[in-house]
Design a protein that fits this description.
mainly beta, Methylamine Dehydrogenase, Chain H, four-stranded antiparallel β-sheet, globular
């Protein structure tokens, strides 16, 4: 009996140690909680560490009374969503239940809302154009101010810690070559801190580095403004109108043009680091960067470019127009006007999952809190999550063979 006890204890410890080792080897998921701006962050990188992996399942959907053509934003477990029914909705991320809504004038908001710890900002989508602020938690009105009245210039918004960056119409007596003014507003009251005239219209949203505001403009230029003073630090020529917002990463600024050009500029100087021309391709939509792979949307497909090897990688052909992509380390999430959400493997672009919504997907997906959020032209916001792992079927227990005593 003592011998049995001495053998049993090491056996138990070995089994327990193996169990702990197996638990420790399971990788911990690293879902980001928030998605406060279009393309995730102020640098417009469009990527996170981890996101739901296919197969996905629909967790909830929320119906508005208008088309959804811009992505939502997410902070502290709340989804902020604009719809063409001229409302902004605040929804609980966990289950899609409504917290509150705000009724706006006809047209609703331009693009995704922009969020800080306390405030939500948005620009009005129809003339006359305004920038609005609201208390992010309660949905109550803050300040608002008109940014312009010239048709086709709805204001983008992008906050930092104290300022809100947007654009304003030129002054009445401005020279003819001035088309708009890039501006920094005081977040607390909307007053102008600085306003710098430029020769084009920023038809795509801006991006931020630590010290610069980057804007691609219809005059086929990329501008870099000092965030504190509004002084133009440098400007660079583009071959064609911009197709994407600037994307800022590790001392480089990436931007694409409608004519198929993809640029990398040095952040400090604006010098061209490299340029790639996609042949016979029209590009459209914001970029995303996962690792060294740059994801570049076109009218009917997604193109990729290796920023280390400086060469194209795989291409995903789509039957209709695609949205801006977003990505994790392992997958790319892409909406399409054929009503489909595609989840692609990042190493080769093959489809890992395809999910149908009730309308065209015209706004990029959002990855937050373990969900993939997709707005559709059927007026619904869809929230997908991972399917739980299936339990392995239990094997029927086999009776042990009879002993020699039983066979007698």
């Amino acid at each position: 009996m003592p011998l049995v006890k001495k053998l049993a204890l090491p056996t138990f410890l070995t089994a327990f140690t193996l169990l702990l080792a197996s638990c420790a080897s399971v990788p911990q998921r690293e879902f980001n909680a928030d998605w406060p701006n279009g393309q995730f962050d102020a640098a417009r990188t469009g990527s996170v560490v981890d996101a739901p992996r296919p197969p996905l399942q629909l967790k909830w959907s929320f119906a508005t009374e208008g088309r959804i053509i811009a992505p939502p934003a997410v902070k502290d477990g709340v989804v902020y969503l604009g719809s063409r029914d001229s409302k902004i909705y605040a929804l609980n991320l966990a289950d899609g239940t409504k917290r509150w809504d705000i009724q706006l004038e006809q047209g609703g908001i331009q693009g995704a809302p922009a969020l800080t710890d306390t405030t939500m900002f948005a620009g009005k989508a129809e003339a006359y154009y305004y920038v609005y602020s609201w208390d992010r938690v309660a949905g109550t009105d803050g300040w608002s101010r008109q940014t312009g009245e010239l048709i086709g210039r709805p204001p983008w918004v992008l906050p930092d810690e104290t300022r809100l960056y947007t654009h304003l119409d030129p002054e009445v007596n401005a020279p003819e070559n001035v088309q708009t003014r890039m501006a920094a507003l005081n977040q607390s009251n909307g007053e102008t801190i600085w306003a710098t005239p430029i020769g084009g219209v920023p038809e795509v949203p801006p991006a931020l580095s630590e010290t610069l505001l980057l804007t691609a403009s219809s005059d086929e230029k990329l501008y870099a403004f000092d965030r504190e003073t509004g002084a133009i630090k440098w400007q660079a020529e583009l071959t064609g109108k911009p197709a994407s917002s600037p994307l800022v990463h590790r001392g480089r600024v990436y931007v694409s043009t409608i004519s198929g050009a993809l640029y990398s500029f040095e952040l400090d100087s604006g010098k061209v680091a490299w340029r790639h021309q996609f042949p016979d391709v029209s590009l459209q939509g914001n970029l995303a960067l996962s690792g060294q792979l740059l994801l570049v949307p076109g009218l009917k497909g997604l193109y990729t470019f290796d920023t280390d090897k400086l060469e194209p990688r795989w291409t995903f052909r789509s039957p209709q127009e695609v949205t801006a992509p977003v990505a994790s380390r392992n997958f790319v999430y892409l909406g399409c006007a054929n009503n489909m959400l595609y989840v692609l493997r990042i190493e080769n672009g093959s489809a890992a999952g395809v999910y149908r919504t009730g309308g065209e997907i015209l706004a990029s997906p959002v990855l937050a809190g373990g969900f993939v959020l997709v707005g559709s032209s059927d007026g619904k916001l869809y929230a997908y999550e991972e399917q739980p792992p299936r339990e392995a079927p239990r094997q029927p227990q086999q009776k042990p063979p009879p002993s020699w005593m039983q066979r007698r």
